[in-house]
Amino acid sequence: xxxxxxxxxxxxxxxxxxxxxxxxxxxxxxxxxxxxxxxxxxxxxxxxxxxxxxxxxxxxxxxxxxxxxxxxxxxxxxxxxxxxxxxxxxxxxxxxxxxxxxxxxxxxxxxxxxxxxxxxxxxxxxxxxxxxxxxxxxxxxxxxxxxxxxxxxxxxxxxxxxxxxxxxxxxxxxxxxxxxxxxxxxxxxxxxxxxxxxxxxxxxxxxxxxxxxxxxxxxxxxxxxxxxxxxxxxxxxxxxxxxxxxxxxxxxxxxxxxxxxxxxxxxxxxxxxxxxxxxxxxxxxxxxxxxxxxxxx
Length: 297
What we know:
Layout: H1 2-5, H2 10-28, H3 30-38, H4 42-47, H5 53-63, H6 68-91, H7 99-113, H8 127-144, H9 158-181, H10 194-228, H11 230-243, H12 255-275, H13 278-296
């Protein structure tokens, strides 16, 4: 607790609020934000994402770790994403997937998975990198590209919960059978208490499940579905989701994690495509991850 309190400073808290604001604002008020961004002059609309450098500026100046390269990165990359996706909207009005869409997904995916930019942040605060890149993607795909069928709306419905928990129930026996059999999962019978369980679930939902489901299902599976069809896009996205876990919990290629994550991706994809709702697949994802972290790690 004392070590955690060390990071709770006015600058860090303000930077966190500013970093989370675009993510949560678009998730909760998508139509309102889209209308406001549409009303902006074109140049302001494309240059506005440069403000995502402000959280980096606040945090690193306060901690004495500021570098112009990092500030330039978090100002320029979101603008480049907005410009490219603005062009994609112009050249691909049918939204079948333009090379610019897939280039941006490749850059965002690799930069998070391979931790390209995390060195720009102070130790233990690299989560800001993931959130700012998420913000840049949200601004570009949702507000500039206006990609349809994403389902990035966290005003959750009862049906989202039902679908999410249904897919969790379908996947859990498969994960237990394979995971325990392969020695990847290890059962722990301890009961941590209701508050730790709820805390783990909500943290996982907002900071792991929603960002990953938005990327893999709302953007990638959505675009692939228009190109290669419903079932092939589900399978390909699940495979790519599995491969994104190749370097987790291991120095070398972690094939057990890749296998279980790829199978999980099938159920996350099913949850999303039922009503094209990121909230539904994020419920499945958060539930699976919470069960794993609390009782099976």
